[in-house]
Design brief:
The structure is a homotetramer. By secondary structure, the first copy, chain A, is an alpha/beta fold. Chain A contains ten helices and eleven strands. Helix content of chain A is 42%, strand content 14%. A six-stranded mixed β-sheet of chain A has the order 2-1-3-6-7-8, with helices on both faces. A three-stranded antiparallel β-sheet of chain A has the order 9-10-11. In chain A, helix 6 crosses helix 7.
């Protein structure tokens, strides 16, 4: 399997795959950029005997706020005429960032209930291509709970092989209704606009974004580097205690260095600005060197684009 | 009854009393200041035959954001040795602004469920002095639902003469627990700090506070005058539609001219700053002349006093 | 005012009216039958100078499980050509038992949120005829909160003169939708069927119904007499403690002697049979002399009429 | 692995294990009795080279209402001095039927959120012995999500390797508090008493229990055979539509022949009797041959043992 070290969760996928005995070629990365289509193309072109069975991309890295460009990875597969399956993790992009399973020729899409669908954690979602189903049918790795066949068979009658989280299915129906009523394009535009406002706040504070590639900035969350010598855990604890506002922390090798601002799901302008206000208060109280005016910069952007 | 035209609700009380056949001396006012203790003292002193049976003060005028100084009205009664009962409406101050029924010698305090107690509307509260109970016993005005005696009699067994809102009584128990856990002094200080931050935002915007007496600024809500030619209804509709944020409108003679920012109940720094952000956005989108920077000024005050 | 001593709440209305200074001719009663149309007609016929300004009937006495026949009271007014207003309390019948304000020529109908509308307590409802509005306009009794005019005036714009229980209005919209989706005739038939099943249980137990007039049996609740020497409070406490089932107690002069089984609102067959089961268990555990088989008799009726 | 064909879920476990490539010796059964300790002892005694690595028992078969006697399986392992691990599924017994992981020497206990813990589906629970942990460390079957080590490692800091269902953990805390407040012995006795009442109802109806071994009757659910020619699906649909009461259906080879009555979790006497009433109504309406009186028989037992 070809994968890209784009962050904590991409690394976790590689670990999980290796734990299952799979061979993973994890393209090294600095967690500040997405999966590199050029590298993908190079590896695929070099794999003339098609040892690579699958390419795994995390669409939106929850640990870094970087969105990989899946269509360009698809293009690399197409240009090299490589038959590897394309697997995409959309955990923190589904319902928040434009994504197209069919149009982009993805074979397995992995989603979940607890991010853009605005539900509690409790179910995962797979969209699976015919090619992936055929591959599963002939695959040798033992599996049971994770096997698709019994699920697909039971689903034909509206059932599930095991106890399903019925409560969350009702929730998903309502969440889908909310998203479709607003219109998916409007939902994606809303998150993109809030993400830009957030980045303007970060820039006004004089802090550094973790993501270094402008076209890979995530619309669902923004990760911010703290200056050397300042621990994000102190900032987050302070903001949680004083503002009842829960920021994301640094995961894996980013622990201590990065905090993350989520702006997915049910969010509007004053909620975002309230959250940014809590962060600006926290930066000040935690003694993190920064310039004031982040909230103003975000508000300015939201007003201009209202 | 002596009352003071401090705002919409004081005027409403006078109307209601008159509708019941009571004679009300309503001291005229411009709705920008509280009940004037000097005027109270003058009227009481002049009432040598004690025709005034009660003095009614609205502690915190929900329509204006002005808090009358009840202890000084009490002092006026004391200095003139006038036996009138002191009646106080604490609808929007109870649980948000310091208030002392016993210590201030109030005879009837009127409160409710739906403001500082953070509950849905559904019950009113009375604290009643022995003098008021004796006055009620001999009063000639017919009353039934509003009679205290059957309530007090039934309460002795933990009951109520009619169907009580049991659900809200459970809610009141929880609300009281929340307030006492935080500590009433801390609750009052929290609202006072949020009120000051709100006024700094208003001042930074270059808008005018309705309340003209600094020591009468309300800690539970702030009313803001819009410049001539700008209608608060347009601003509020816009803010509600775009930000899902419901501002108070101008009541009675303030309709069209004043909008009101509530900062009572369950509120913390980012929630207040989010609300002020929504207003700053709204002012801009509604084309109301103002300077930017209101949210920044509020944030600055909150940071300084954190 | 002409009223009928049909139970605790009719008596309470008379007390309330008298407390307001009104003269009430309360036709004596034993709380086991409804308002007697023949007596009504006799009193009205005798009142040649129309001193009676209003006739008050409690449609369904919550304390007794007796439903008065309002159309026959109306007929008594019509036959005597008496101009008195007809006032009807539908507290425990509205939405549970057929009732027709316009068709029956009622002038003031009084309802509430917390019974057949399946909501928490928190609002009252009035339907008011033009005649009643005109009477109110010229009536001398001082009133303020209870005055209809300000409410009607404010309602014209969708508003309310005071703080309305908005939460309950949303609830009422949903409750109304539920009732209309089921169909009012179906709702009334459901309660009538459950009431008959309940009476069959009572009869099988060998206990006595409080209501003595078959055509006045209430469809929304059933009151049951306990044998001499057995206190309903003991039974109810036991049933509450063991079964988490809250029965109504004896009100006013029925205290200790009568318990009440509510079967209004959201109720289906197993819920009713579960409640009757809890009562049969309680009768046995409390040592109340009775025959077993009440639940079976109710179940038999429900099966026959399913 | 040695397993016992005690019902649908035991069979499912065997299928799942085989799908993972494990060899399973599934002792045949008729789904009307639990795992046979004598057979277990015989197989274990014959396995002199310890090819059997684990013995799997479903403590309470959700599909049949049969509770296997785990301590006697343990005794068979002990008497044969066989080192196989003992694995027990407590899905529908945990928190409803007495069970002792340590005292009974179980190596792996499997539980869940959605039965006796009275929560929505969403998490599984494992209790794991040191021997099982050591076995896992040396086991060759590839696993990732199901691996214990990362979970145990993360739990040391109160964390989880993946996104945990935080909402259900709060629920579990409350559920545990409810169970411990009532007292586990009282909880188990409550379910045993309700199970006996249910069996008396079934017996009074003249229907047959699926479970044929008196000491293996389940305290958490009861499965009932319908007479030949009557389909449980018709009965269940009817009861659901008319009574809003959801019965369990026949699973696997019992489809069409058996319905199941759950009596676990939050249940009291009138709720059980209400459910039995709905079934008795349904039997009648579905034309299933039976004698009336099931509810009466259950009520009689509950009264006797109150």
């Amino acid at each position: 399997m070809l994968a890209f070290e784009t962050g904590h969760f991409a690394t976790l996928w590689a670990q999980m795959a290796r734990r299952l005995g799979l061979e993973v070629d994890l393209v090294p990365g600095d967690w500040r950029r997405g999966a590199d289509p050029a590298v993908a193309e190079e590896r695929l072109a070099a794999d003339s005997d098609h040892a690579i069975k699958a390419v795994l991309v995390v669409h939106n890295e929850t640990s870094t706020g970087v969105t990989s460009r899946v269509p360009q990875i698809r293009a690399a597969l197409d240009r090299t005429r490589h038959p590897a399956l394309l697997l995409v993790d959309t955990i923190s992009s589904l319902g928040s960032i434009d994504y197209r399973h069919d149009e982009w020729g993805v074979d397995v899409t992995i989603g979940c209930s607890q991010k853009g669908l605005m539900l509690p954690p409790g179910f995962g979602l797979n969209a699976v291509s015919d090619r992936a189903l055929r591959a599963a049918a002939s695959a040798g790795l033992p599996r049971s709970y994770w096997a698709w066949e019994p699920v697909i068979a039971a689903n034909a009658d509206g059932l599930w092989p095991y106890t399903p989280p019925t409560n969350l299915l009702y929730g998903a129906r309502e969440a889908t209704r909310l998203l479709l009523d607003e219109g998916l394009d409007a939902v994606f535009a809303r998150h993109a606009r809030h993400a830009e406002a957030t980045r303007r706040a970060v820039s006004a504070w004089g802090l550094e974004l973790l993501c270094q590639v402008p076209e890979e900035h995530s619309a669902s969350l923004t990760a911010v580097l703290l200056p050397e010598g300042h621990d994000e855990r102190k900032l987050r604890t302070l903001v949680l205690d004083r503002c009842n506002l829960s920021l994301g922390g640094g995961l894996g090798m980013l622990a201590g260095r990065v905090f993350r601002i989520g702006h997915l799901g049910d969010l509007n302008d004053p909620t975002l600005l309230g959250a940014l206000s809590g962060i600006e208060l926290g930066l000040r109280l935690a003694g993190v060197p920064h310039r004031p005016g982040g909230v103003s910069a975000a508000l300015e952007h939201l007003a201009e684009t209202a």
